[in-house]
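Proteins fold reproducibly. Consider a sample protein:
=====
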Amino acid sequence: MKALVLRGHGDLTRLAIADVPAPAIMGPRQVLIRLRAAALNHLDLWTMRGLPGLSLQFPHILGGDGAGEVEAVGSDVTAVRPGDKVMINPGVACYHCETCDAGEHSLCPEYQLLGEHLPGTLAEYLVVPEQNVRRIPDPPAPHPPITWREAAAFSLVTLTAWRMLITRARLRPGEVVLIWGVGGGVSGAALKIAKLTGALAIVTSSSEAKLEAARGLGADVTLNHTQVDVAKEVRAVTEKRGADVVVENVGEATWEQSLRALAKRGRLVSCGATTGPRVVTDVRRMFWHQHTIMGSTMGNLAEYREIVRLLGQGHLRPTVDAAFSLADGIRAMERLDRGEQMGKIVLDV
C-alpha cells in the first residue's frame, strides 16, 4: 500500500511516499480500515524531528487523524461491521488495566498515539482496536452531511480541546477564555467549544487573516500577539479582572503572559509546548491569586463519544484549511511546517 513515511528523524527531507506492507487483523477485537481521508497535526512535525524517549522502527507511517470504511473486523468485534463509515480516535490504550477500568484511558501506562508511537493514518489501510472507531454521525437537516475530510480532521484536536476546557478547566457559561494561536487545530477547536459553552472567547494570532477568520467563527475579541501585550489587553477587555481560563499550548514564549492574564482563581490548562518546555512561574502571584495550573493530554472514550455526539447534532465541525492528495503529502507537510494553515490540512487517500 502507499503511505507517507518517515525514513529517519530530521527535517522534511526525511519524508517519502513509499510502498509498505498493508496491515492485517491480528486480534479478535481489531478493525481494518480503508482510509478515505487523513489529517495532519503538529505532532507529525515533532515526531519527524524526534521526541525525547521516542524510539521508532523506520520507515514509520505518520498521521494520527483519519476516516474511512471498515474493510474487515476481528471475530469478537460488535461495534462496527464491514462497509461502515468510521472516524478514528488516535489514542490507543490497553483497555484492561485499572486506569482504563476507571475511565482514564489517556493515563493508561500503555497509552500510545497513532503516528507517534504506532503506525499512523497517512496510508491506504490501518488496523486499530474496536474501541478506537466510531461511526460517522449523520447530522439532522439543515446541517449538510459530514464529509470524509471533516471526519478525518475532527478527532485529535477536538478531543484534546474538549478535555482541556470541559473536563479539566470546567469552563462555564459567561466565563472569559484566552486562546493562543487560533490558526492551530487545537486552538480552533477550543474556540468552537468555548462558544458552544457560552463563554466569551479572546483569541490571538500573528496573522490578521487568521484573526478575521476567527471572528467569522465567533471569536469575541481578537489580538495580534506580535503587536500588543496580550495580558494587558485581556485585562483591559475584562475591566482589569482577567481571564477565567487560559488555553496554553505554546510554552516558553507565552507562559508568563498567560499567567499575567489570569483572573483571581483563574485556571491555566496546557497541552503542549511548541516554543519550548522550560517556563518561568512567579509562585507568589500564583498562590496569592489562587491560580490553578493543570496539564491535559487527549481524552477518554466517554469524552470521545460525547464530542462525536455533538458533531452529529451539527456542532464542532472542524475547519478544513486545505486538501492535498496522499501522493502530494510532503507538500502538505511543508504548508504545516510554515504555519500557513487556518484549521486542519487534510490528505485525500
